[in-house]
Specification:
two-stranded antiparallel ribbon; elongated
Length: 329
């Protein structure tokens, strides 16, 4: 019985100690590498047996072939040695760069422009398309302008409910309501400010209003600016320059909500409100009705402040970000 018990039998009856999973992974990888080496060695041996010699790595084969070719050239020459040299020669020809590959004219165009002895500069992503910036707006100090008052204007609606009821009544007669408003800018200590009309303690509005039937929006906006912010005398009338259309807002129903798009389920919106950029001259006089108040609100205070200024005015900083402000002192 002692002779029959071998080491293999002992190993079978012993419980192997558990191996950590990470160690088992490395052991498995080492075994796979050994198996691949053995397989490659056997393949080389079989290829060498077919070719009449033992299989050896490629660099040694190239050296052996070159030595054989030298011996063959020193002697009468052998066809087998010549055939063995051909793949190496063809490989060398393929590895040689084509003529003129290093010249500047044949270099593939790169997004980085590099000059001689200069640091690389990044080329524009779309060199064929010129860069288009937003409108350039000249801003002058708020202290350049003078302010006066005139007779109070008539306020038609004293609440949002009254305004919506009147809008619904006019919609049956005239159809969709067309409204235009203007964004007038000045700067205070180099920071842009928007001029707003304050109707009540908690209600601010851009200057503008409803257009008459078939009235042009530019003509209608100038008329509304004159009624709200200018004198009745032609000599004191500011030279309004209405340039870019900044935004379009839609009222889908007779409610307080406006959107910068038409909702897909709405076929007949009740109001379209267009916001224009109005450029000011270097100096002018504003004449405000006595029951209104003109306020200059900074973009910093206006940004994302929907609770105080509403959705249209609070988004003006984002809309005006495409403009280039030329600060004139």
């Amino acid at each position: 019985d002692e002779e029959d018990s071998s080491d293999d039998d002992v190993k079978v009856h012993l419980k192997p100690t558990p191996m950590p999973p990470q160690t088992a992974m490395f052991v498995r990888a080492a075994d796979l590498r050994k198996e691949s080496k053995k397989r490659k060695a056997s393949e080389r041996a079989s290829d060498g047996a077919r070719g009449g010699g033992a299989g050896t790595p490629l660099p040694k084969l190239e050296r052996a072939e070159s030595n054989d070719s030298k011996r063959s050239k020193s002697s009468d020459g052998s066809a087998a040695a010549a055939k063995a040299v051909v793949p190496v020669a063809s490989m060398q020809l393929q590895m040689q760069p084509p003529p003129g590959a290093g010249e500047e004219s044949n270099v593939f165009p790169s997004p980085v422009i590099v000059g001689k002895h200069k640091r690389p500069k990044f080329a524009p992503l779309l060199p064929g398309m010129p860069f288009k910036s937003g409108p350039i707006v000249d801003l002058y100090p708020l202290s350049n302008y003078t302010f006066d008052s005139k007779a109070p204007t008539r306020i038609k609606d004293h609440s949002a409910k009254e305004k919506l009821l009147r809008m619904e009544k006019n919609y049956r007669k005239r159809g969709r309501r067309e409204t235009v408003e203007g964004v007038i800018l000045a700067h205070v200590h180099g920071h842009p400010h928007v001029l707003l009309l304050q109707y009540t303690k908690e209600f601010f509005k851009l200057p503008g209003g409803r257009l008459r039937p078939a009235e042009n929006e530019i003509t209608g906006l100038k008329r509304k600016l004159k009624n709200r912010m200018a004198s009745d005398h032609e000599t004191l009338l500011p030279k309004w320059e209405i340039s870019d259309l900044l935004a379009v807002w839609w009222r889908p129903s007779f409610e307080n909500y406006l959107y910068p798009y038409i909702p897909p389920h709405i076929t007949a919106p009740k109001e379209r409100k267009r916001i224009y950029l109005v450029a000011l001259p270097e100096k002018c006089t504003f004449t405000i009705p006595s029951n209104l108040k003109l306020c200059a609100v900074s973009l910093f205070h206006m940004y994302n402040n929907m609770n105080e200024y509403g959705p249209i005015i609070s988004t003006l900083p984002q809309i005006l970000s495409r403009c280039t402000f030329n600060i004139n002192n």
